[in-house]
């Protein structure tokens, strides 16, 4: 039997269990794993030298495809470099399979290089961690490897999806002999049948009774992938039953004449009387985390009397608004479709389907439209000034229809949420909002672009870009990637939030100005590079920038941090008067 046959079995199991993509970081101890996947006829491999960036690229690939992506790295500190992406995948519920090569355990604490304790290294930030045997002489070792791979890959995909770790101790020799062939022979696949939770009839009737008793029902949508069917049922619930649908850009809730998307603005300056009028009797939430602090603060200070959270599987109680009364194990789309059908039929039987004035919905619409006018007024106050905010507005307006938008954390995602995208554009939005760090935003967008022919635009700030520019190290960069870099030469968010902005150490210890531009980075990565410092020029550049081409493109927008600050402070000053004006 070839020396590497159990490792080759791992590669075959990846393929047979539905994994088609593997991201590899080069190393010696991991060479058997690398060769096994590289020579497999049906596995696509991507090489990324930086393990931290590699794992974020895999994260982006998994986000885009919805399938598990495997990641291979060598032993030692290389494994720890994956930790930020692993944490993001865990809290963002994204399926990854982490294959970490290791020394045999008896060499731990023996002054051998690249040897650390890798068993359980990711702690509670993986769904489960496995440790394979270093020796394969007994048949049980092969049985254990097959069983472990079957279980680990399935577990990564079961709701809630997430990362699973397999530690692989490897003895020398690492490399096959010249006459040694890889045999991707038969492996045992253990299938797990999919099942959907169902609610007992008495439970369903109890929920319908709660619904009927509620005079003010609100649905809030957290971070969730774009789903036209979900948007359609939410529109029906709002149009036909009068339910306010509150959402954000990261929840793929577009701006239209119906959905409530300006909560970060109108809830910031809300008075107590208006807050009580908006307070729901019954709150339904779906999706993962919410972006805007003002929405979260409102729902905590004015909690619903009853709060349902709908999620496919129950592994933890998510009570982020401190008001949860019922956790419902169901797919949100299926639940809402059945809810609408039953409620609509009941209204028909009672003959009141045309009598509802939708008063509660109109209250939310009124404040939302006021907020929209305020934001529009702020952007029109200095129409020719290029600021981060005005640039984001223009970029979002020019995004090609049916394209993908990845929002980096810190200010870009917040500016984008203030601006929104129109329903007409059919934009799919994603962001690393599981942990919400800036450290892998560019790499995640690169990974997403690798998995689609659609245009992928990443909107990113300068600190996040330069922190993660190793995402562009391993060529080729997918030609459908478009990078919009907002370069204000600082950590701009610290000039806007109250705490650090008042400190004399603001610039040195929080903003950390750097003086870098992206020109050399773009040249090294062979990107089409353009720099712009004018709003008029930006408008003229965008059509060609978004046009398909043979290379990825980077558009660097240079803005003044003081102008950015002044605009945002003026906006915050206007919020105070928002609820003192008529609709």
TrEMBL record:
GO terms for molecular function: 2-succinyl-5-enolpyruvyl-6-hydroxy-3-cyclohexene-1-carboxylic-acid synthase activity; magnesium ion binding; manganese ion binding; thiamine pyrophosphate binding. This is 2-succinyl-5-enolpyruvyl-6-hydroxy-3-cyclohexene-1-carboxylate synthase. SUPFAM superfamilies: DHS-like NAD/FAD-binding domain, Thiamin diphosphate-binding fold (THDP-binding). It comes from the Bacteria. Its EC number is 2.2.1.9. The gene is menD. It holds the Pfam family TPP_enzyme_N. One of its GO terms (biological process) is menaquinone biosynthetic process. Residues 10-120 form the Thiamine pyrophosphate enzyme N-terminal TPP-binding domain. Coiled coil: none annotated. Binds 1 thiamine pyrophosphate per subunit. It catalyses: isochorismate + 2-oxoglutarate + H(+) = 5-enolpyruvoyl-6-hydroxy-2-succinyl-cyclohex-3-ene-1-carboxylate + CO2. Belongs to the TPP enzyme family. MenD subfamily. CDD domains: TPP_PYR_MenD, TPP_SHCHC_synthase. Its cofactor is Mg(2+); Mn(2+); thiamine diphosphate. Homodimer.
């Amino acid at each position: 039997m070839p020396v590497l046959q159990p490792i080759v079995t791992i590669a075959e199991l990846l393929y047979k269990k539905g994994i088609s993509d593997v991201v590899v970081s080069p190393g010696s101890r991991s060479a058997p794993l690398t060769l096994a996947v590289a020579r497999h006829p049906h596995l696509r491999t991507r090489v990324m030298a930086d393990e931290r960036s590699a794992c974020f690229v895999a994260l982006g690939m998994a986000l885009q495809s919805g399938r598990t992506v495997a990641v291979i790295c060598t032993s030692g500190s290389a494994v720890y470099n994956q930790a930020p992406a692993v944490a993001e995948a865990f809290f963002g519920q994204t399926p990854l399979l982490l294959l970490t090569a290791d020394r045999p355990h008896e060499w731990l604490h023996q002054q051998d290089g690249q040897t650390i304790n890798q068993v359980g290294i990711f702690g509670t930030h993986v769904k489960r961690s496995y440790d394979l045997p270093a020796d394969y002489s007994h048949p049980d070792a092969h049985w254990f490897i097959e069983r472990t791979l079957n279980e680990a890959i399935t577990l990564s995909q079961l709701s809630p999806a997430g990362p699973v770790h397999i530690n692989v101790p490897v003895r020398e020799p690492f490399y096959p002999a010249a006459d040694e062939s890889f045999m991707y022979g038969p492996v045992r696949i253990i299938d797990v049948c999919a099942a959907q939770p169902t609610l007992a009839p008495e439970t369903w009737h109890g929920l319908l009774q709660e619904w009927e008793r509620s005079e003010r029902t609100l649905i809030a949508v957290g971070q969730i992938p774009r789903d036209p069917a979900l948007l359609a049922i939410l529109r029906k619930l709002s149009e036909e039953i009068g339910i306010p649908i509150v959402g954000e850009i990261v929840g793929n809730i577009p701006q239209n004449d119906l959905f409530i998307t300006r909560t970060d603005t109108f809830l910031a300056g809300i008075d107590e009387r208006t807050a009580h009028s908006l307070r729901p009797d019954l709150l339904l939430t779906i999706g993962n985390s919410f972006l805007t602090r003002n929405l979260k603060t409102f729902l905590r200070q004015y909690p619903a009397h009853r709060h349902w959270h709908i999620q496919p599987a129950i592994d933890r109680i998510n009570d982020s608004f401190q008001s949860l009364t019922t956790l419902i194990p169901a797919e949100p789309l299926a639940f809402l479709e059945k809810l609408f059908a039953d409620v609509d039929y009941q209204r028909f039987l009672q003959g009141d389907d045309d009598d509802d004035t939708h008063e509660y919905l109109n209250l939310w619409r009124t404040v939302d439209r006021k907020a929209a006018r305020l934001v529009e007024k702020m952007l029109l106050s200095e129409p020719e000034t290029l600021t981060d905010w005005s640039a984001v507005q223009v970029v979002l307006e020019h995004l090609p229809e049916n394209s993908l938008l990845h929002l980096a954390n810190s200010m870009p995602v917040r500016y984008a949420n203030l601006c929104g995208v129109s329903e007409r554009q059919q934009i799919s939005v994603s962001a690393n909002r599981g942990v919400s760090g800036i450290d892998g935003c560019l790499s995640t967008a690169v990974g997403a672009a690798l998995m689609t022919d659609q245009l992928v635009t990443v909107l990113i700030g300068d600190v996040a870009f330069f922190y993660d520019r190793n995402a562009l190290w391993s060529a080729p960069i997918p030609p459908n990637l478009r990078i919009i870099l907002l370069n204000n030469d600082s950590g701009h968010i610290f000039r806007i939030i109250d705490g650090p902005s008042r400190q004399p150490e603001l610039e040195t210890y929080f903003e950390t100005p750097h003086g870098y531009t992206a020109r050399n980075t773009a040249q090294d990565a062979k990107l089409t590079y353009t720099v712009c410092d004018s709003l008029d020029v930006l408008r003229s550049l965008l059509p060609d920038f978004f046009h398909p081409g043979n290379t990825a493109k980077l558009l660097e927008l240079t803005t003044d941090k003081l102008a950015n600050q002044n605009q945002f402070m003026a906006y915050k000053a206007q919020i105070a008067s928002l609820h003192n004006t008529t609709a």
